[in-house]
Amino acid sequence: MSTILHIDPSVNGENSKSRQLALKLIDRIKAADPSASVTSRALNANVAPALSGDVVGAYYTPADSRSDAQKALLANSDTLVGELQAADTVVIGVPMYNFAVPSTLKAWNDMVARVGVTFNYTENGPVGALTGKKAYLVVATGGVPVNSAYDFATPYMKQFLAFLGISDVTVVEASGFAVDAEKAMATAIANVEAAALPVAA
């Protein structure tokens, strides 16, 4: 049985286009693999708080040397990391806010990028520990075309996932909702339907 992790950083709840499209994609994946389970993680400031110096200090303290306070600080990060480690497929809604990712998605990245856990430093540079996973980025924008010169969200997320060892990444484009919402949704749904599904293990 495979596990799908859905990351939803949108502030728009049920009205979120990235969320709606990510769920359509997950439905496709589940239709092809009915035994797949889904873990849904909606992000907010409580789930993915901004990084602090104390948290970074706890990251770099050996696990057997951490204080109770440091362990408490890392409890939320440990949960998010565990969800990511357990997932075979990761579907991330990426609504573009002011040319980049939502602050909660950046915070999630900071919570799951753990030295010695999700990546390691080597003589040849950092090496990701989360290999063998498939990821989808459902990138929804108001007016900026995905993968254009003004899209700083898509390349950043691809680079971040590669940093963790997740190099098999499909981008599902959902551009232009502020320009022509009906056309944008129709095109985006077609892109969801055209996305290649994960290869069964």
TrEMBL record:
Cofactor binding mode and count: Binds 1 FMN per subunit.
Residue span(s) of domain Flavodoxin-like fold: 3-193
UniProt enzyme class: oxidoreductase
Positions with a binding annotation for FMN: 10, 16-18, 96-99
Keyword DNA repair carried by entry: no
Catalytic activity: 2 a quinone + NADH + H(+) = 2 a 1,4-benzosemiquinone + NAD(+); N,N-dimethyl-1,4-phenylenediamine + anthranilate + 2 NAD(+) = 2-(4-dimethylaminophenyl)diazenylbenzoate + 2 NADH + 2 H(+)
Keyword Flavoprotein annotated: yes
EC annotation from Swiss-Prot or TrEMBL: 1.6.5.-, 1.7.1.17
Pfam families referenced in this protein's UniProt entry, alphabetically: Flavodoxin_2 (PF02525)
Entry's Gene Ontology molecular function annotations: electron transfer activity; FMN binding; oxidoreductase activity, acting on NAD(P)H as acceptor; oxidoreductase activity, acting on NAD(P)H, quinone or similar compound as acceptor
Essential cofactor(s): FMN
Keywords linked to the UniProt accession: Flavoprotein, FMN, NAD, Oxidoreductase
Database matches in InterPro entries: Flavodoxin_fold, Flavoprotein-like_sf, FMN-dep_NADH:Q_OxRdtase_AzoR1, NADH:quinone_OxRdtase_FMN_depd
Sequence similarity: Belongs to the azoreductase type 1 family.
Subunit architecture: Homodimer.
Function: Quinone reductase that provides resistance to thiol-specific stress caused by electrophilic quinones.
Protein's name in the database: FMN dependent NADH:quinone oxidoreductase
Native species: Thalassospira mesophila
Classification of source organism: Bacteria, Pseudomonadati, Pseudomonadota, Alphaproteobacteria, Rhodospirillales
